[in-house]
C-alpha cells in the first residue's frame, strides 16, 4: 500500500525558534500533499494544500509567513513553523493522494507532535 | 464551507455491532471517507463511498445517501482493538477533504 513517511515524530523546541517537518511519499509520486493540524480531542483541520512546483494554497486563518510550505519534488513536501510559540504546540500531519483524484483516499504520515516551550 | 456532524462518543460491548452516523453539508461532493484514528497516531483509511449504497469490507461497512447528506459506518463483531476515534471526512467540489470532529468508540468486555 501507499506509504507516507513523516519526520520527525516528535520535537520539542524553544519559543522563537523554527522547526522543519518533512513529508515523503515513499512508493508513489504525489503532486499534491496536504498539511493538517490537530489539537487534543479535536478533529483534523486542513492548513494548506501543497502543490509540487508551485505555491501552496493556505486555508483561511492560516498565516502563510508563519507556516512555510515547500514542495520541491514529487515525493517531498516540507512544513516549517517559523518563530514558534507555545500556542503552535499541536499534532501536525501530512497526507498525500495516490493516482487520480476521483477515488483516491488520503494516506497519512504518522504525524509530528510539536511542543514549544 | 463544510458542515460535518457525527456523535462525540459511543460505547458498545465486545462482539456487538455499532453504527456511527454522519451528516454533512458541502459545496459540491466528491466522495465520503471513513478513517480510524488511535490516540496519538495518524488516521488510517477504512472506506470510501461516492455512490449511494452500501460498501462492505470485512467487519466494516459504510453506507451513503447523497440526497440525504448522510452516511454511516457499521462495525460488526466488535473487538477491543476497535476502540478508537472514527472520523467522517467529505471531499468537496474542489477535492478538498474536510473532517468531522470524530466519534470515540469504547469497546467494553
Written account of the structure:
The complex is a heterodimer of chains A (117) and B (109). In chain A, strands 2, 4, 5, 6, 9, 10 and 11 form a 7-stranded mixed sheet that branches. A 4-stranded antiparallel sheet of chain A has the order 1-3-8-7, with no helix packed on it. In chain A, strand 7 and strand 8 form a beta hairpin. Chain A has 117 residues and is mostly beta strands. Chain A has strands at residues 4-7, 10-13, 19-25, 32-38, 45-51, 57-58, 67-73, 76-81, 90-97, 106-108, 112-116. Chain A is 0% helix and 51% strand. Helix content of chain B is 0%, strand content 57%. Chain A binds chain B through residues 6, 34, 42-46, 49, 91, 93, 101-103, 105-111, 113, and chain B through 30-31, 33, 40-45, 48, 50, 87, 89, 95-102.
State the helicity of chain A in percent bands: under 10%
List the uncertain runs of chain A: none
Class inferred from helices and paired strands of chain B: mainly beta
Measured as a percent range, the helix fraction of chain B is under 10%
Q: What's the pLDDT, averaged over the residues of chain A?
A: 89
Assess the beta-strand content of chain A as a share of residues: over 45%
Largest sheet of chain A: 7 strands, mixed
- Oligomer designation: heterodimer
What is the radius of gyration of chain B? 13 Å
Question: What is the tally of helical segments of chain B?
Answer: 0
Largest contact between protein chains? A-B, 21 and 21 residues
Distance N terminus to C terminus of chain B?
40 Å
Secondary structure: number of strands of chain B: 11
The fraction of residues assigned to DSSP E strands of chain B is: over 45%
Compact summary:
With 117 residues, chain A is mainly β.
Q: Can you give keywords for this protein?
A:
heterodimer; A: 117 residues; mainly beta; 4-stranded antiparallel sheet; 0% helix; B: 109 residues; 5-stranded antiparallel sheet; 11 strands; 57% strand
What topology emerges from the helices and strands here?
The complex is a heterodimer of chains A (117) and B (109).
Chain A: E1 4-7, E2 10-13, E3 19-25, E4 32-38, E5 45-51, E6 57-58, E7 67-73, E8 76-81, E9 90-97, E10 106-108, E11 112-116
Parallel strand pairs in A: 2-11
Antiparallel strand pairs in A: 1-3, 3-8, 4-5, 4-9, 5-6, 7-8, 9-10, 9-11
Chain B: E1 3-5, E2 9-13, E3 18-25, E4 32-37, E5 44-49, E6 53-57, E7 60-65, E8 70-75, E9 84-91, E10 97-99, E11 103-108
Parallel strand pairs in B: 2-11
Antiparallel strand pairs in B: 1-3, 3-8, 4-5, 4-9, 6-7, 7-8, 9-10, 9-11
